[in-house]
Structures are given as structure tokens and as C-alpha cells.
Specification:
This protein has seven helices and no strands. The chain is mainly α. It has one domain.
Length: about 180
């Protein structure tokens, strides 16, 4: 447990060496999964006034699915379209590094304090995005932070399109009933 907490703190501190460490540690997938779950539970608690208790369960399930899809998109884009000569990665490396980049999301639990929800949510989102760029840069062995930012932006756009299509399909089915 001490190793997990230490890794989460180092991930939140944007420690490049931590991201290299979990990239190489194939046994860290369980820890990365736990970080994603804890971060989404913290978000659920922080937004319980808006989403209710069911929001914690739904949010956690969606966070896990989103993490997996995001890691795959990042892997695909980063190794196929924006690879540098030294780029070498697998899906597991991105799952582990991106999972740990969710560590700053634990502060979202503070959203439960009246008046802090939006500020905490925005701060956590920015912090997690910066951590994700570092995670992607390290996992894909990029020398360029700009390239890692590009992968994240392209992946974000692709994920939005996918979510739009999925929600349109399910939304369309629900209206016909």
C-alpha cells in the first residue's frame, strides 16, 4: 500500500521518473486501475449533490471504460500516426502511465464542499491533463512534449466523436420506444 501511495503522490507531482517506472513495471496495472477507480469515486463524492449516489457507480464504470479506450486511442495514434523514430510502446504501457495520471483527480472529493465544486473540478481537470501529457510523452518515448500534446488533442477529438455517435445511437433507440 505504501508503494501505491508513494506512486500516486509522485504522479501528482508530475515526476517524470514515476511515469518511466510504471511504464516499465508490468505488475503496476492493478495499481493503475485502482488509481482510476479512486479518482472516479472521489469525483462521485465531490459531485454527489448533482449526480446522487448512483453517479458514483456509473461514473466509476464509465471512467474505467474511458481509461481503456483512451489508452488504446493514444497508443494507436501515438505509434501509428505521430511516432518518433525511437517510439516503442504497447497498450499496457499506456494503460499504466495514463492510469497514474488520474492521481490528481483525488482532489475532486473536495467538490463536496459548497461553493468549491466548479473550481476544484477545473483545477483537477487541468492538473490531470498536464499529468496525462507527461504520461503519454514517457510511454511513447517522445522527445517532444508538443507531439504528446498533439496525440492527446487528436485522441480527445476522436473520443468525442465516438461518444457522440454512441450516444446518438442509444438516444435514437430510446426515442422510438
Amino acid at each position: 500500500m505504501n508503494q501505491l501511495v508513494d506512486r500516486m503522490v509522485r504522479a501528482a507531482k508530475l515526476d517524470v521518473n514515476l511515469y518511466e517506472e510504471v511504464e516499465a513495471d508490468k505488475g503496476a496495472l492493478g495499481q493503475a486501475t485502482l488509481v482510476v477507480v479512486l479518482s472516479s469515486i472521489a469525483n462521485g463524492i465531490g459531485t454527489i449533490g448533482q449526480a446522487g449516489a448512483m453517479g458514483i457507480i456509473t461514473g466509476t464504470i464509465l471512467a474505467l471504460i474511458g481509461w481503456y479506450v483512451w489508452a488504446y486511442l493514444t497508443y494507436f495514434i501515438g505509434t501509428r500516426f505521430l511516432a518518433e523514430p525511437q517510439t516503442q510502446a504497447d497498450h499496457g504501457e499506456l494503460l499504466r502511465t495514463i492510469g497514474f495520471s488520474s492521481s490528481p483527480g483525488l482532489i475532486r472529493i473536495l467538490g463536496i464542499i459548497p461553493g468549491l465544486g466548479a473550481i476544484v473540478s477545473l483545477g483537477a481537470a487541468i492538473w490531470m491533463l498536464i499529468a496525462m501529457v507527461i504520461a503519454v510523452r514517457q510511454a511513447l518515448d517522445y522527445k517532444s512534449t508538443g507531439r504528446a500534446i498533439g496525440v492527446c488533442i487528436i485522441g480527445w477529438i476522436v473520443q468525442i466523436v465516438i461518444l457522440f455517435v454512441v450516444f446518438s445511437l442509444f438516444g435514437g433507440c430510446g426515442r422510438g420506444m
